[in-house]
Diacylglycerol kinase (Rhodopirellula europaea 6C), 125 residues
Amino acid sequence: MAPKPGSWAAKFRCATLGVWFAFGGQSSFWVHLPVTAAVIAIAAWLHLEPVQWAVLILAIGGVMTAELLNTSIELLVSVVHPQHHPRIGQALDIAAGAVLVMSLAAAAVGLIVLLPPLYGRLFGV
Protein backbone atom coordinates (compact mmCIF):
# COMPACT_ATOMS: atom_id res chain seq x y z
CA MET A 1 0.00 0.00 0.00
CA ALA A 2 1.42 3.39 -1.02
CA PRO A 3 1.83 6.02 1.68
CA LYS A 4 -0.72 8.84 1.85
CA PRO A 5 0.45 11.81 -0.31
CA GLY A 6 2.03 14.53 1.84
CA SER A 7 2.59 12.18 4.79
CA TRP A 8 5.98 11.68 6.39
CA ALA A 9 6.04 8.18 4.94
CA ALA A 10 5.50 9.58 1.43
CA LYS A 11 8.20 12.21 1.95
CA PHE A 12 10.62 9.59 3.23
CA ARG A 13 9.79 7.37 0.25
CA CYS A 14 10.48 10.24 -2.19
CA ALA A 15 13.75 11.06 -0.43
CA THR A 16 14.83 7.43 -0.54
CA LEU A 17 13.97 7.20 -4.22
CA GLY A 18 16.02 10.33 -4.83
CA VAL A 19 19.07 8.84 -3.16
CA TRP A 20 18.65 5.57 -5.09
CA PHE A 21 18.30 7.49 -8.35
CA ALA A 22 21.42 9.52 -7.64
CA PHE A 23 23.51 6.49 -6.72
CA GLY A 24 22.13 4.39 -9.55
CA GLY A 25 22.10 6.91 -12.35
CA GLN A 26 24.81 9.47 -11.64
CA SER A 27 28.44 8.60 -12.23
CA SER A 28 29.64 11.26 -9.78
CA PHE A 29 28.59 9.10 -6.87
CA TRP A 30 30.71 6.22 -8.07
CA VAL A 31 33.77 8.40 -7.49
CA HIS A 32 32.86 8.91 -3.84
CA LEU A 33 31.74 5.36 -3.01
CA PRO A 34 35.16 3.61 -3.13
CA VAL A 35 36.71 6.36 -1.02
CA THR A 36 33.86 6.10 1.47
CA ALA A 37 34.23 2.32 1.62
CA ALA A 38 37.99 2.62 2.18
CA VAL A 39 37.56 5.19 4.96
CA ILE A 40 34.97 3.03 6.72
CA ALA A 41 37.13 -0.08 6.39
CA ILE A 42 40.22 1.68 7.76
CA ALA A 43 38.23 3.26 10.58
CA ALA A 44 36.80 -0.13 11.54
CA TRP A 45 40.27 -1.72 11.42
CA LEU A 46 41.61 1.02 13.68
CA HIS A 47 38.76 0.63 16.21
CA LEU A 48 38.16 4.37 16.34
CA GLU A 49 36.48 6.12 19.24
CA PRO A 50 32.78 7.08 18.80
CA VAL A 51 33.58 10.78 18.42
CA GLN A 52 36.04 9.98 15.62
CA TRP A 53 33.36 7.92 13.89
CA ALA A 54 30.93 10.80 14.27
CA VAL A 55 33.35 13.24 12.65
CA LEU A 56 34.03 10.87 9.75
CA ILE A 57 30.30 10.19 9.24
CA LEU A 58 29.58 13.94 9.18
CA ALA A 59 32.34 14.49 6.63
CA ILE A 60 31.09 11.65 4.43
CA GLY A 61 27.50 12.87 4.80
CA GLY A 62 28.60 16.38 3.85
CA VAL A 63 30.18 15.17 0.62
CA MET A 64 27.17 13.04 -0.28
CA THR A 65 24.79 15.91 0.52
CA ALA A 66 26.79 18.34 -1.62
CA GLU A 67 26.78 15.80 -4.46
CA LEU A 68 23.01 15.28 -4.14
CA LEU A 69 22.40 19.04 -4.26
CA ASN A 70 24.73 19.46 -7.23
CA THR A 71 22.98 16.62 -9.07
CA SER A 72 19.55 18.08 -8.36
CA ILE A 73 20.64 21.49 -9.68
CA GLU A 74 22.07 19.90 -12.83
CA LEU A 75 18.85 17.97 -13.47
CA LEU A 76 16.63 20.96 -12.80
CA VAL A 77 18.65 23.21 -15.12
CA SER A 78 18.58 20.62 -17.90
CA VAL A 79 14.77 20.76 -17.86
CA VAL A 80 14.12 24.44 -17.13
CA HIS A 81 16.79 25.89 -19.42
CA PRO A 82 18.27 23.20 -21.71
CA GLN A 83 20.07 25.73 -23.92
CA HIS A 84 23.56 26.84 -22.96
CA HIS A 85 23.69 30.15 -21.10
CA PRO A 86 26.87 31.58 -19.53
CA ARG A 87 25.19 32.47 -16.22
CA ILE A 88 23.65 29.03 -15.89
CA GLY A 89 27.04 27.54 -16.69
CA GLN A 90 28.51 29.62 -13.88
CA ALA A 91 25.81 28.44 -11.49
CA LEU A 92 26.54 24.82 -12.40
CA ASP A 93 30.27 25.42 -11.94
CA ILE A 94 29.62 26.93 -8.52
CA ALA A 95 27.52 23.93 -7.51
CA ALA A 96 30.30 21.60 -8.66
CA GLY A 97 32.75 23.79 -6.75
CA ALA A 98 30.72 23.23 -3.60
CA VAL A 99 31.24 19.50 -4.02
CA LEU A 100 34.96 20.06 -4.51
CA VAL A 101 35.25 22.24 -1.40
CA MET A 102 33.34 19.72 0.72
CA SER A 103 35.39 16.84 -0.68
CA LEU A 104 38.66 18.60 0.15
CA ALA A 105 37.41 19.42 3.64
CA ALA A 106 36.34 15.78 4.11
CA ALA A 107 39.76 14.59 2.92
CA ALA A 108 41.42 16.87 5.47
CA VAL A 109 39.12 15.53 8.21
CA GLY A 110 39.94 11.98 7.15
CA LEU A 111 43.65 12.65 7.35
CA ILE A 112 43.39 14.36 10.73
CA VAL A 113 41.26 11.55 12.19
CA LEU A 114 42.88 8.53 10.54
CA LEU A 115 46.59 9.31 10.21
CA PRO A 116 47.62 9.33 13.90
CA PRO A 117 46.05 5.96 14.79
CA LEU A 118 47.09 4.50 11.43
CA TYR A 119 50.68 5.57 12.00
CA GLY A 120 50.56 4.10 15.50
CA ARG A 121 49.09 0.82 14.21
CA LEU A 122 51.61 0.48 11.39
CA PHE A 123 54.74 1.57 13.24
CA GLY A 124 53.87 0.57 16.80
CA VAL A 125 54.17 4.09 18.14
